[in-house]
Amino acid sequence: MLIRTDPFREIDRLAQQFFGSQGTWSRPTPMPMDAYRQGDQYVVSFDLPGISPDAIDLDVERNVLTVKAERRPLERGEGVQMQVSERPLGVFSRQLFLGDTLDADRIEASYEAGVLTLKIPIAEEAKPRKIAIASADSDRKQIDA
Q: Which stretches are transmembrane (predicted)?
């Protein structure tokens, strides 16, 4: 048998069940993430342990990327009596506002070991490029834009 030693954790768990992601009046729980730039793309990783890939939904609308995931209760056989239940269940959601310099049409998503990784490329028109300068003596010189 498992013994609970932290009474405050139990109070937090009960409050989460009563007010949190379990009820109809709840708001989605945020999920932890890391984001960084790597070359010509941004990489965003979300921690979603114990969530099946088919329970993850990604949407982009007007430069807003929404990630929703649902952790469902595990199916238990008859006669199972829960002793400790600390893993939150329900809907988790996070929104990211994508700048105009990102190419939302070419986002790549992968899911491995409970981590959802998104690769968001920088739009071609936002990348630095060379611009040719015409001069009166017809020598062309290129400068960085």
A: none
